[in-house]
Amino acid sequence: EGGAPGRRGERERSEEAPAERGPGAAFHMFVLMEDLLDKLKLLSYEEEALRRHNMRPLSRHYFALPTNPGEQFFMFCTLAAWLISKAGHPFEQPQEYDDPNAVISNVLSELRSF
């Protein structure tokens, strides 16, 4: 019982200030992105998803660094649509200028149906 409040306090501080979680916490997103890229490569995303839409392959840190939010969102939507289709659920490829809220709503709705 005596240790629980201390742990709770530590958890609250870590949620507020990510730097207090440890020296490697700032780089965790880069590790996740590299893992994602490895998994996409295993699924042949370059041949199946990118070539069809004439897109460049992702860099190792593409989603880890906010460089061009519109382009990154469209890439995310393209990959999400491709993965949903690859899982056996027909899903229409979103267009670059579609309403972002509608696209995300469609993706989430399709994922809920799994």
Secondary structure layout plus pairing:
Elements: H1 3-16, H2 28-42, H3 45-53, H4 69-86, H5 100-112
Helix pairs in contact: 4-5
GO biological process, one term: intraciliary transport
Pfam family, one: IFT57
Protein name: Intraflagellar transport protein 57 homolog
Task: Please provide a written account of the structure.
The protein is an all-alpha fold and 114 residues long. The protein is 61% helix and 0% strand. It is globular and about 45 Å long. 7% of the residues are buried. Residues 1-22 are annotated as: Disordered. Belongs to the IFT57 family. It is found in: Cell projection, Cilium. This is Intraflagellar transport protein 57 homolog.
